[in-house]
Amino acid sequence: MKSRFNVDAHLRHEAISLDRVAKTLLIKNLTTGEIFNYEYDRLIIATGAKSIRPPFQGLDHPRLVECRTVEDADQLRQFVVARPKARALVIGGGFIGIEVAEAMTHQGMQVTLLDLASQVLPPFDPEIAAAAQEHMRGRGVTLKLGAKVESFEHGEHESYAILASGECVAFDLGILAIGVTPQTSLAKGSGIPIGATGGIVVNEYQQTSDPNIFAAGDVTELLFWPTQSCIKLALAGPANKQARAAGTNAATSQPQISISGAAGTSIVRVFDLAVAMTGLSEKIASLQKIAHKVIYTQNGHHAGYFPGAQPLFIKLIYSPDTGRVLGGQIFGAQGVDKRIDVLATAIQGRFTVDQLADLDLAYAPPFGAAKDPLVIAGMVASNEFHGRTRTITPQQLRDELASVIPPAVVDVRSAREYAAGRIVSAINIPLDELRASCERLPIDRPLVMHCEVGYRGYLAERALRQLGHANVRNLTGGYRAWKLMQLSIVTN
Fold this sequence. Notes:
Distance between the termini: 50 Å
Shape: globular
Number of helices: 14
Strand order of the largest sheet: 6-13-7-8-9
Strand content: 25-35%
Mean pLDDT: 96
Oligomer: single chain
């Protein structure tokens, strides 16, 4: 830092307090104990976030560690090397918790992941998180969701997590990955405003209420594009862009770089599955009463006739009023990162579903399809937006099936697919037999057509409309989306 940038880096020095009138910091040298004042012209607060540590009895014990710093990682590594077959308890089902659970499993440890929420990956919608949960269980991870820790107890050779249910979970190593909260003590102590999110309030130039003090990263709050409200967003991409703006603007007489906000684009590996999201989730849209429509699609990540094509499951959320893309979530083994980045760009560019369907993306059989999975999602949403098709989500179908006059569900898959798993009330009329079997369809109830992922159900819906059936809809995402919805209902 010194030889290349002429920057003096003072390690093991703690900023104790900030005097904004005198423009000084009170600094403590943690090695010598010396305390002194340090003057500044411009100040950048980039203190990041600190781990959330609930007041659990027994939390301070050598068998309970965090996974936040390099030192934490070294400590975990030493334990794994010494006891590769030990029992690991991961507390927290966010990105870090899932990554730790995967790493510990690969090292041969018996892993249990515990979370107070009813799903892993809290920002995601439940049915998408359910795909990750199913995959983790398939790799040997025990999930205990909706489970509240009351305390920890420690014996000579093992420890125990005592749950509110009365269950006692034994472990040899516990990893705390509950989450983080902005480290704002320095700013708060000097009277710099803290937002409702818990982060420092900054303007588009990363400037605080004090024109000589800037802030960047996890310590600040950030504008969320889809809702135009401020949120906490502990992600590296936005933090790095904030840092560029804060550093540049603090070093110049007039601000030069501004930050508009973020879509919250994120991705995580769950063993060999990738799960990603950007923009508005369905549950946040519902909570904030934002009008939205949802469609699901599943297609291969590259041309199906080229070896190795893997399914990509896409959930697209858009505005029913304008057709503007609001958000999306994707999971699959290959190609997830490419599509979520394109979708994030579409959200930032305020694209509509028509524009998403019109994207000109690279195609060659090893890399994609002539109609990319994201383009197909745009086409499906565009068809619905313009009234060329009518869809129903699995959640809506579940509610309607419990109503006084439930719809008739018609499964247009093959008899073999139907026998392997079905919606309980569905009748089976394979698509190629549908036109000749119309007399089997109920005429006193609405019809819901479905197949495995949505395409054949769409063809069935269109065929029946041509034959005069007006009240017919297609189950978006088909039986695959229905199964994910059913999985999301189960918390343990």
